[in-house]
Design goal:
The chain is an alpha+beta fold and 147 residues long. It has a domain at 2-101: Gcn5-related N-acetyltransferase (GNAT) (Aminopeptidase), CATH 3.40.630.30. It is 31% helix and 36% strand. It contains four helices and seven strands. It has helices at residues 11-21, 30-38, 81-96, 109-117; strands spanning 2-5, 42-48, 51-60, 65-72, 100-105, 121-130, 135-142. The chain has a seven-stranded mixed β-sheet, with helices on both faces. The radius of gyration is 15 Å and the shape is globular.
């Protein structure tokens, strides 16, 4: 597996993974991914044998960064792909010396454990954050690494 910058040509595959993983909510479209890339956000993909198997995105401002998405094809979950994607995002935030914020479904124990293991803390709860399912989300944050 390799982690590399996400390409515009990956947007359709990203949308396909979204449909598979998040059918009860509002999965991102190909156009949404293209917009994220065109707006200068930091996106990486995980590739295995030339196939996109996961992706992650980070928005950066002058003061903070926020994880926009992390997703891994269900066939590859549990094998460290999500961890590698998260570490790529955190490395970029650390380069900029920025804190990182995110929202995560309260029922996504695997993701919550991953974030806690990488220095995130629970900051709050957003009721009915994910639509249309109405699932709640934790807001989590990690301080800037200014080494």
């Amino acid at each position: 597996m390799t982690i590399a910058p996400l390409r515009h040509s990956d947007a359709a595959r990203c949308a396909q993974i979204e449909q598979e993983l998040f059918p009860g909510d509002d999965p991102w479209s190909e156009r949404a991914f293209l917009s994220e890339l065109d707006n200068g956000n930091f996106y990486v993909g995980a590739y295995s044998g030339g196939e996109l198997i996961g992706y992650a995105g980070l928005g950066l401002t002058d003061f903070e960064s926020s994880v926009h998405t992390i997703a891994v094809d269900a066939r590859f979950q549990g094998g460290g792909v999500g961890k590698a994607l998260l570490r790529a995002l955190l490395a970029r935030a650390d380069e900029a010396g920025l804190p990182v914020f995110l929202e995560v479904r309260t029922d996504n124990a695997r993701a919550i454990d991953l974030y806690l293991a990488h220095g995130f803390e629970h900051l709050g709860l957003r009721r009915r954050y994910y639509q249309p399912s109405g699932a709640d989300a934790y807001t989590m944050g990690r301080p800037a690494n200014r080494d």
